[in-house]
Amino acid sequence: MSKPHILLIYTGGTIGMIKDFKTGALKNFNFDELLKHIPELRLLDCQITTQSFKTPIDSSNMKPEYWVTLAEIIEKNYHDFDGFVVLHGSDTMSYTASAMSFMLENLSKPLIFTGSQLPIGDLRTDAKENLITSIQIAAVQEKGKPKVQEVGLYFEYKLYRANRTTKINAEHFEAFASLNCPPLAESGVHLVFNDHVLLKKKGQKKLKVHKNLETGILLIKMFPGLHKETLSHLLSWKDVKGVILETFGSGNVTNEPWLTHALSEIIKKNIPVVNVTQCSGGSVTMGLYETSTQLKEIGVISGKDSTTEAALGKMMFLLGKGIKPSLFKAHFETPICGEMT
Ligand code: ASP
Fold first, then answer.
1. Which atom of ligand 1 is nearest to the CA of 175?
2. 120 or 269, which is more confident?
3. How far apart are CA 120 and CA 51, in angstroms?
4. 56 lines ligand 1 (CB under 6 A)
5. If you average pLDDT over residues 285-306, what whole number do you get?
6. How far apart are CA 321 and CA 301, in angstroms?
7. Which pLDDT tens digit goes with each residue over 147-186?
8. Is residue 91 within 6 Å of ligand 1 at its C-beta?
9. Is the entire prediction scored with pTM above 0.85?
10. If residue 10 lies in a helix (H) or strand (E), which one and from where to where?
11. Active-site residue numbers?
């Protein structure tokens, strides 16, 4: 049997940097020379091909146009490879990986995002383990099929469902958390998969890549002291197509009439409003408190236990697909690719 063939795509970020020992500065590293810098990769039981963004970017510069570029790279190479590993800056990795989970319908091969807190050329780097194990995970096959058939994010010994993750730490190697979904796999002395958590794909459906994303989105974080004027200014943006509210606790906001009124007016214009919690774990349950009952009554959509990152990608995707306003709530409240419980 031939060895699994993995496509390693470098988009940018700390992981691909190396220290110039003369000047001490970090610089982008030439990915064509990957094997030269990480000879351990030769020991992996798979064949690796690399491809890099023309101009690698810090992930803070990431935007939906680049998500489409990435989706197109995967589309173009889908049949020739058994798995994909994307090297991406950690800052917005959860956003890109979440969006990808919606854009790549019927994905049945592993697409593993990884990065690092320290550059690959740093002595104490976390990049090597993250990279090597991600490639290993992407290469695991069972009964001739890839073990992972979804978008994952591997960081510091854990493989997560990508659309359940959030970056929670800018200092620790354990930079990501997935509080509402257990890890898909954990790497210790052995690589142990949690079979009951992995998405199972039935049949062989053709990959369908969705490239139309609606970006007229407002993401508004509630805070004690938010001015009525600030909110009405934001909601008066003429191109707004969807609103995501980051609310308190289990989906609560002030029940002062101005807020309910402003949201109700926007919903009447057929602009969907989704409620996600600011907490990293737990779920929105509208109606549990008096401070969320009014939201339910005016037709606010529940993001349930989705992360903000997943809710944003899902909204761009569903609006981009042209889902009718009357059906939008039902579509949004139904899980598509494991992003909500
Ligand atoms: N600023 C970097 C980025 O997100 C940080 C990292 O790579 O972890 O591209």
1. 8
2. 269
3. 17
4. no
5. 93
6. 18
7. 999 999 999 999 999 999 999 999 999 999 999 999 999 9
8. yes
9. yes
10. strand 5-10
11. 14
